[in-house]
Write a structure and sequence with these properties.
alpha/beta, Rossmann fold, two-stranded parallel ribbon, about 25% strand, globular
Length: about 160
């Protein structure tokens, strides 16, 4: 959503879950929703005509996801790891140094940046709640976490009743 608002394109996503890929396409958040398998990198290269992506973000925290975004990042590109957990093994010379890739790890941001983000969401009329597919009351928090752990659809939200 933010990538599109900032003028990025094409916007690609990779996800192992069909429902999440369909949701991203249905909401117009991405131009291409790719299957998370061995063909993902080849599809990225095909879509970008071999250039790779100028900016990549791994939200999965998975070893495979992190490896993919590093390999899919273009020369002089930026790659961010925001997903918790996991490891990554890379060929530092070929995948980072020779390509001049910048890798950033990000867990939280500052309060001023959050204020800026909220201002932009309002100004650009963006509604992140569109990706919430399941809402649970506080009393059902355990069920909400179980649903979220399956990762089969959009975001799970716990709300005050």
């Amino acid at each position: 959503m933010l990538a599109r608002a900032l003028g990025a394109g094409p916007v690609l996503s990779v996800d192992p879950m069909e429902g999440r890929r369909e949701l991203a396409l249905d909401l117009g958040l991405v131009d291409h929703a790719l299957t998370a398998d061995d063909s993902a990198l080849a599809r990225v290269e095909e879509i970008t005509e071999g250039a790779g992506c100028s900016t990549t973000v791994d939200c999965s925290g998975s070893t495979a996801g992190r490896s993919l975004v590093v390999r899919a990042t273009s020369r002089w590109g930026r790659c961010a790891f925001v997903g918790e957990g996991g490891e990554v093994t890379i060929d530092v010379s070929q995948q980072l140094i020779h390509k001049q890739v910048t890798v950033i790890g990000s867990w939280v941001t500052s309060v001023p940046r959050m204020v800026e983000l909220l201002d932009r969401l309002e100004r650009w009329d963006l509604h992140p709640d569109q990706i919430v597919t399941h809402r649970f009351g506080l009393a059902d928090a355990a069920a909400a976490y179980e649903k979220a752990d399956r990762g089969s659809m959009g975001k799970v939200c716990i709300v005050w009743e």
